[in-house]
Specification:
Blueprint lengths: L14 H9 L1 E6 L5 E7 L6 E6 L10 H9 L3 E5 L22 H16 L6 E7 L1 H12 L6 E5 L11 H11 L3 E3 L2 E3 L23 H12 L11 H19 L5 E6 L7 H6 L5 E6 L11 H18 L6
Parallel strand pairs: 3-4, 3-5, 5-6, 6-9, 9-10
Antiparallel strand pairs: 1-2, 2-4, 7-8
Helix pairs in contact: 3-4, 4-7, 5-7
């Protein structure tokens, strides 16, 4: 693997990154069921290649400024959307901090609409998928149903299984028992999972996402300054839908016609690495990012650079427009 140059945690929010972000277009589209989905994109003047980013639960594209900048520097146009019910997209529940989705396939339908209406009209020669955690579960479902859209996909710490406090059957039973989701006055009343709560900024010392203090604090400051993007724990309904989708995504990834690379975070405490191992096949490969917590793209420079180098090499290896 040859080493590439990327942004550094020692120089966050550089003037070059700020100038780049001013050129990024931020907008939204409306789904058939009336949900506004926020998105951001930038077209690269010299490139026929584009990357679509599908982010994780509680995230927003605003968290991906540094990553989008680095991908653009490597010659890609970059597109990112905020999934329904989180980030800068419309919330579905009366309590805007609740992580909720009615059906997991709603996420996939939104991604499909995004690709069809926003990405495809720009006529890139090649599209690549870059997804994180829950975003990988959504991307796996999308790729299963649309096997010819992406040349290759890279999944960072994919949610092919969730780390649970009890056995899956007990968690399902509890979530079913307490899921009282119903619509009133156009929005959903729902219940957090057991022990769940609204948005809480965890201190760096207690965080299980990254070893990079500068990147973690930047992420927290950004979300503290953007209340609209804040999200708390998931609801029982989300958990039931996510567990079902994660189970299904193992088979989908294993039998994918699109080449997939899993970036497995060695010290992940959020998703289940054993579940990722079950998806490996001739089309679905993995590399272990040693020492990494769940968020490899906001990890320390050393781990992040390795993850990004693997990502770009995998895309280059499968690219049909080599050298473009």
């Amino acid at each position: 693997m040859h080493y590439m140059k990327f942004s550094s945690e020692l120089k966050l929010d550089t003037s070059a990154q700020r100038d780049f972000w001013l050129a990024v277009i931020q907008s939204h589209f409306c789904t058939p069921d009336g949900v506004n989905i926020a998105f951001a994109y930038i077209e690269h003047p010299d490139s026929q290649k584009a990357i679509v980013i599908s982010n994780g639960r509680v995230e927003s594209y605003i968290k991906y400024k540094e990553l989008m900048f680095d991908l653009y520097q490597q010659g890609f146009s970059v597109y990112a959307l905020d999934h329904r019910g989180q980030g800068l997209s419309d919330r579905l529940t009366h309590n805007p901090h609740q992580g909720y989705v009615e059906k997991f396939s709603d996420y996939t339908n939104d991604l499909n609409q995004f690709i069809t209406e926003i990405v495809t009209p720009n006529k890139h020669k090649e599209l690549f998928m870059l997804a994180h955690s829950m975003g990988s579960t959504i991307a796996t479902d999308y790729i299963h149903h649309h096997p010819n859209t992406f040349t290759a996909a890279v999944f960072s710490a994919p949610m092919l299984g969730i780390k649970l406090p009890f056995s899956p059957s007990l968690v399902r039973w509890l979530a079913n028992k307490f899921d009282n989701s119903h619509i009133s006055n156009g929005k959903v009343n729902s219940r957090y999972v057991l022990g769940g709560s609204g948005y809480q900024a965890v201190t760096f010392k207690r965080n299980q996402l990254t070893h990079s203090k500068p990147r973690y604090l930047q992420y927290r400051n950004l979300f503290d300054a953007t209340p609209k993007a804040q999200l708390g724990s998931p609801t029982n309904r989300w958990l039931l839908e996510a567990m079902k989708a994660a189970d299904q995504s193992i088979e989908y990834a294993k039998n994918s016609k699109t080449p997939i690379l899993i970036l497995q975070a060695e010290k992940d405490s959020i998703v289940c690495n054993k579940a990722q191992n079950l998806a490996l096949s001739s089309q679905c490969h993995k590399v272990v990012i040693e020492g990494a917590y769940h968020e490899v793209f906001i990890e320390t420079d050393q781990m992040r650079n390795i993850a990004l180098s693997y990502t770009l090499e995998f895309m280059a290896q499968h690219s049909k427009t080599a050298g473009s």
